[in-house]
Structures are given as C-alpha cells and as structure tokens.
Amino acid sequence: MNEGKNIQISRSRGLLSWFWQGSFLLQSSPFLFFPYICCVVNYYFIIYFQQVLLSLLLTALDRLKNKSALFLNDLQFIFA
To answer: Which domain of life is it from (predicted)?
Structure first.
C-alpha cells in the first residue's frame, strides 16, 4: 500500500516538474529565441529588400532605355 502511494507521489512530482519546466520554457522562450528569430527575419527581409531594389532598378533602367530609344527615334524623325 505504501509503495503505490510513493509511486503516485513521484508521478505527481514528475508532472509538476514537467509543467513547471514547460511553463518556464514558455516564459523564457521569447528571450531565448528572440535573437535567432530576429536574425532569420532580418536575413529574409534583406533578401526581399534586395530583390525589390533590384527589380526597381531594372524597371527604371528599362524605362530609361525605352525613353532614350523613343527620343532617338524622334530625333531621327525630326532631322530626316
């Protein structure tokens, strides 16, 4: 009878320690993983930002090329 009581007490202590560790990890996880999350988010933001800047630059160069081509066509039409 006493052995069953000891097993039940040890189980309840095990569950309490498990819940306590789980709650401790949940409470401290933002502090533990915040630098890693920021690093990953920053990495993907930099990649996305570079892609956006590159696409804007290519679009601007394409528009300049088209405008210069139209401008040269106009000049050829004027002086022809």
So the answer is: Eukaryota
